[in-house]
Amino acid sequence: MRVLSDLVWSGPLALDEAHGERNDTIARIIGARAWMSLPEAVRVRFARVEPALYRGRTQTRLSLFGRVFAWALFPFGAPLPLFAGESDALVKVGVKHGGMSWTRTYRGPLGLAFSVRSIKRPSADGGLFECCAGGWTMLLDVSADHGSLVFRSRKFFWRWRGLSVPLPVWITPGIAEVRHTDIGEGRFRFTLTFDHPGLGRTVFQDGVFEDPSS
Predict the structure, then answer these.
(1) 47-56: pLDDT as tens digits
(2) What is the span of the domain harbouring residue 163?
(3) Given 3-state DSSP classes, what are the helix, strand and coil percentages for the chain, each rounded to the nearest 5?
């Protein structure tokens, strides 16, 4: 029974946090010293509780295996970008289910639009979950690195209601890393990579976004 229990439930629980006038989840995870080492603009973006809409443009590259992963997962929540190349993008951020919700909408070939939805929620072990549509979940380590806020996947799960199944990295697109870097004048760079231990880099996305005007 212990083996079965370990298979169907693994990893720490997500915590629900009701944000009122403040959102200090990231600050508490990385610690005060690391938090204060980030530019003020970065701290404002990740501490806000009111909804925000960021507009930008992205450049995406997908390896053959990256395309396979993206399209294979498309019917089950679409957690990965579907198209390579340049794209206009909108990122809507808000507070939902005790975490920060992110909806990234891209406009691909022929004007086709698709969205990637996720919620960042604190975990019981002091880390952070990235909970994507379809139950795909990453346990993240969060750090500050030379002014950039960095999210790096530690473990993958598929979660649905009371079921939680750990996923070995070799059946995923690879280890994920997201960097948020302020570049001044109300703009920031968002960089996403997935590096598979055997298949190399499967996904790369780089984009520049602007803060809301008000």
Answers:
(1) 888 899 999 9
(2) 2-210
(3) 20, 50, 25
